[in-house]
Design goal:
The structure is a single chain. By secondary structure, the protein is of the alpha+beta class. It is built from four helices and four strands. It has a four-stranded antiparallel sheet with strand order 1-2-3-4. Strand 2 and strand 3 form a beta hairpin. It starts with a helix and ends with a strand. The relative contact order is 0.17.
């Protein structure tokens, strides 16, 4: 009887310890939303730093990525009166491969919405855009 009680308690403790903190889908979705919120706020360097780079990139390439982010925001301003808000639609995570697909919903200034897939990768407990 004691062994069964111990086994039940150990199983419950394991379940409770696993449920602490956000689930991987929430963490990946939150990271993707933060990166795109930075883009909306004009924090282009921070947005670019949210991309996974396994190795250091040359400063000239980093500057090109920053310029591309600025151009994207400018294009959205011209086409839709700007990107005003980002919401999380859904997220799926493959915990074995440390990758996720996050579906963000872009809300534009002209009231149009668009669902965008943001592939993510987890590296050293941090989610980055791929």
């Amino acid at each position: 009887m004691r062994k069964i009680l111990f086994l039940i308690l150990a199983t419950c403790a394991a379940c409770w310890s696993c449920s602490d903190g956000p689930i991987p889908e929430e963490r990946a979705a939150r990271a993707a939303k933060v990166y795109y919120d930075w883009l909306i706020q004009g924090k282009y360097e921070d947005f670019v730093d949210g991309r996974y780079q396994p190795e250091a990139i040359p400063p000239s390439y980093r500057q090109q990525l920053i310029a591309n982010a600025k151009m994207f925001v400018g294009e959205q301003q011209a086409a839709h009166k700007g990107l005003k808000k980002v919401r999380v639609g859904a997220a799926t995570v493959d915990t074995a491969r440390h990758v996720a697909n996050v579906f963000l919903i872009f809300v534009y200034g002209d009231s149009a919405t668009e669902e965008v897939l943001v592939p993510m990768i987890e590296h050293k407990d941090v989610w980055y855009m791929r």
